[in-house]
Write a structure and sequence with these properties.
Layout: H1 2-51, E1 55-59, E2 65-70, H2 73-76, E3 97-100, E4 105-111, E5 115-116, E6 124-129, E7 139-145, E8 152-157, E9 162-167
Antiparallel strand pairs: 1-2, 1-6, 2-3, 4-7, 5-6, 7-8, 8-9
Length: 175
C-alpha cells in the first residue's frame, strides 16, 4: 500500500511539472531561433563587406526558411543556382546559404524592403546589405512559435547594420 501511495504522489508531481518544463523549453527554442536570425543577418553583412558586393537576406513568410545570396538576378530569378564555390573547384564558402529555424518556429510578417526576390519566387527580401556594411533601410521581422510562446521582434538598423532583439507581448499577433 505504501508503494502505491508513493507512486500516486510521484505521478501527481510529474503531472504538475510537465507544463512548467515544457513552457521553459518553448521559450528557449524561440530565443535560440532569434539568435540564429541575428547571426545570419550579421553573416549576410559580413559577406557583403568581404565580397564588396550587395547581399540579400530573404525569408519565406510563415515558414522557418531563410536564404543568403548575392543581390543579383542570377541568384534570385527563381532558377536553380549551385550553392557551391566557384567553377574552378576551389574550396570557397558557398555563394548561396539556405537554412531553417528550429521546428515549430516560423517567420511572421516583416517591414522594410518588402519585395519578392524574383519572378516566380516566394522568397521575400528582409534586408539587402551594401558593400560598406549598411543596409538599404531599417527592417523588422518577427518570429513566433506554434507552441504559444510570446513572439520575438528582430530589428535591423540600416545606417549601422546592427541587429537587436525584443520580445513582444504574448497577446500580440506578430504573424
Amino acid at each position: 500500500m505504501e508503494v502505491i501511495l508513493v507512486m500516486v504522489i510521484l505521478v501527481v508531481i510529474s503531472a504538475l511539472a510537465v507544463p512548467v518544463v515544457t513552457g521553459m523549453f518553448t521559450g528557449r527554442t524561440l530565443d535560440a531561433a532569434a539568435d540564429t536570425v541575428k547571426g545570419e543577418l550579421t553573416k549576410t553583412r559580413s559577406k557583403a563587406i568581404e565580397n564588396r558586393a550587395p547581399y540579400r537576406f530573404a525569408i519565406k513568410e510563415n515558414t522557418g526558411m531563410y536564404r543568403i545570396a548575392p543581390d543579383t538576378d542570377d541568384y534570385w530569378s527563381g532558377g536553380s543556382v549551385s550553392s557551391s564555390g566557384n567553377a574552378d573547384g576551389d574550396c570557397q564558402e558557398p555563394q548561396v546559404i539556405e537554412g531553417s529555424l528550429p521546428e515549430k518556429v516560423c517567420f511572421g510578417q516583416s517591414t522594410g524592403v518588402g519585395m519578392n526576390s524574383g519572378a516566380g519566387s516566394d522568397w521575400k527580401t528582409v534586408a539587402t546589405f551594401l558593400a560598406d556594411g549598411t543596409a538599404l533601410e531599417d527592417v523588422q521581422v518577427s518570429i513566433s512559435s506554434q507552441d504559444g510562446a510570446a513572439p520575438i521582434l528582430i530589428q535591423l538598423k540600416a545606417s549601422t547594420g546592427s541587429v537587436s532583439v525584443a520580445s513582444l507581448p504574448a497577446s500580440s499577433n506578430a504573424n
